[in-house]
Write a structure and sequence with these properties.
Blueprint lengths: L11 H18 L1 H17 L19 H11 L13
Helix pairs in contact: 1-2
């Protein structure tokens, strides 16, 4: 089996055609339709035995704070609580 990660695209022309098609669907039919089509393709691939790895990464940075400390930081950053707010230690 050949590893076809984005770094080793074996069919760049075909990849570009798929990307163009997706862009067209988004433009003409909207993001919801594109999402539906992608979910359908993923489901079909999994049912046919294709291994699709789960990648728990996002385009957003996730702070490495414990949840209770993250929310304190978030509220303070959003301006909902003044900096002087005293939080009880967990």
């Amino acid at each position: 089996m050949v590893d076809s990660t984005p770094d080793t695209d074996l069919g760049p022309l075909e990849t570009q055609e798929w990307q163009d098609a997706l862009s067209t669907v988004i433009e003409r039919e909207g993001q919801e339709r594109a999402h539906f089509l992608l979910e359908t393709l993923i489901d079909q691939a999994r049912r046919s035995g294709t291994h699709i790895p789960f990648r728990p990464t996002t385009a957003y940075s996730i702070p490495s704070l414990r949840p209770e400390r993250f929310w304190r930081f978030w509220y303070r950053k959003a301006g909902r609580y003044p900096r002087e707010t005293r939080w009880p230690r967990p």
